[in-house]
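Posting here for the record, re: magnesium ion.
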Amino acid sequence: AAKRAGRSTFADYDASLNQMERTRRDLELDMRTAITEGQFRLVYQPQINLRTGAWAGKEALVRWEHPTRGAILPGEFIDIAEETGLIIPLGEWIIRQAIHEAVTWEEPHRIAINLSPIQMRNPNLVGVLTSAIINAQIDPQRVEIEITESALMQDSESNVEMLHRLRELGVRIALDDFGTGYSSLNYLRAFPFDKIKIDRCFVSEMLDRSDCQAIVRNVVMLARALGMETTAEGVETQEQYDWLKRHGCTEAQGYYISRPLESSRASEPSRDPSQWAEYRELGTNVHP
Ligand code: C2E
Ligand code: MG
Ligand code: MG
Ligand code: MG
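Prediction output follows.
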């Protein structure tokens, strides 16, 4: 019986692997037409200035409205897009769309755009950003590029060179998901980031775990000493918000402030936190 159970477990495993492979292949095929068919859209999550309570910027987050599978989150398709190279046309669309939508906003908030490491290695990146900025006539200082540590790790020398070229355009550069991956303080020395985004895993545990709290407190101090801003990711409670504000973190982003919003809904609410419930609700039907 044990043997049979063992065998059937393996068969199940095998079948589910095949299922995963198939889903992946299907998604890959579908993605080839999804861009031209307009199935991608961007939602925007506000980043709040902790000192003033005003919105400082919004991060563009991509969503795939699949015709039969429904809404798909980036966690399910970004790595497929990277492996197939489709991240290049998709990333281009994201850059143009985010900048294009940002200039329609009532308030001139900053627009933060995530870049994949693959895009960083594309020599056309500077050209794409430049033309998007010129076409939209946006102040490049309103544009913030978010790159992760893993992007820097892979061939860090040419990536740092690319960062300098982007900086010459006048855009701001943020280091995303700081503290995950193989963080090295050398990255902070190699390039003068405008901002460090402290990863959600530290923020969500910082009030329960002294190690996470020590990390957040010290990243904030280090960033300040280096002249960089800090954004805490994944702020979900008022306690976290208050603690971050007290400890000099410069910005916060997370469900406590607002879920990602449709571009047209993404205008600034009251600065009084008791009025934010509406925004927390609004985004829930846009999904996380
Ligand atoms: P990220 O850049 O770190 O983005 C933050 C993610 O955390 C978003 O997930 C956001 O919806 C989620 N989030 C925000 N606040 C909270 C919170 O309070 N609690 C929790 N539990 N989660 C929160 P999303 O949109 O699913 O994106 C996941 C990742 O996919 C992003 O992480 C980013 O690495 C990547 N991504 C998203 N959009 C793009 C894009 O346009 N281009 C590229 N290359 N990558 C993207
Ligand atoms: Mg990001
Ligand atoms: Mg992040
Ligand atoms: Mg993160």
